[in-house]
Amino acid sequence: MVMQTEARVGVSSGHGVASSSHRLTQDQRSHIESASQLLAGGLAGAFSKTCTAPLSRLTILFQVQGMHTNAEALRKPSILHEASRILNEEGLKAFWKGNLVTIAHRLPYSSVNFYAYEHYKKFMYMVTGMETHKASISSNLFIHFVAGGLAGITAASATYPLDLVRTRLAAQTNVIYYTGIWHTLRTITTDEGILGLYKGLGTTLVGVGPSIAISFSVYESLRSYWRSTRPHDSPVMVSLACGSLSGIASSTGKLS
């Protein structure tokens, strides 16, 4: 998960113009670092999604198996059997059906999620008056949780059509109804209307909101604690460790 790192701004004496210029440089550096992290996270996410695409497609096929399979086959679902069927009937490349749109979805989703979280967090600190006062741990946790949930809902809503396209493409078996990303978007819009691109959004938001809220709040709490106890550790290592643990926490919360 890509998060914005906090720049340490040194306060030095001098003229107001020089100080303002120094702060501007630090702000620009912070934005560059954030953009770099965002790009790196998007590329890493795209690579990981490509590696796990066969498992993702198998998951989708099992979820919609009742639409394509008879009742007898449903009694004995098997990963190996379904994988063999895909390989024999559709070919090796079929394991990556819908992966291109997954990659196209990943970067804008991460971008919106990241920037929305930062803006929601700043807005909540400003509204609650904690921007200029030291907040308690529980107050910080509440703000991170709410801001994370709102960011997840915003990002999922903004990029949901691509998520729907991915699912439609991956759910196809022998009968090919959609031939690509643009064809899928045009067909859904023509046959089902614009609102057809948002079918299932409500259910998705119910899962995404709490999941991202847990992820951000756990990440921020762990990172803050780690920095206070081990200030000399590598920021990259801290981000990776905290990101991994927060991901596990959000996945566990979603399963429960």
TrEMBL record:
Any Pfam family: Mito_carr
Assigned keywords, A-Z: Membrane, Repeat, Transmembrane, Transport
Solcar repeat start and end residues: 32-123, 139-225
InterPro entries tied to this protein: MCP_transmembrane
PROSITE patterns for the chain: SOLCAR (PS50920)
GO cellular component, one term: membrane
Disordered, as annotated region: 1-26
Biased composition (Low complexity): 7-23
Record flagged with keyword Transport: yes
Family in the record: Belongs to the mitochondrial carrier (TC 2.A.29) family.
Name of this chain's protein: Mitochondrial carrier domain superfamily
Organism listed in the record: Arabidopsis thaliana x Arabidopsis arenosa
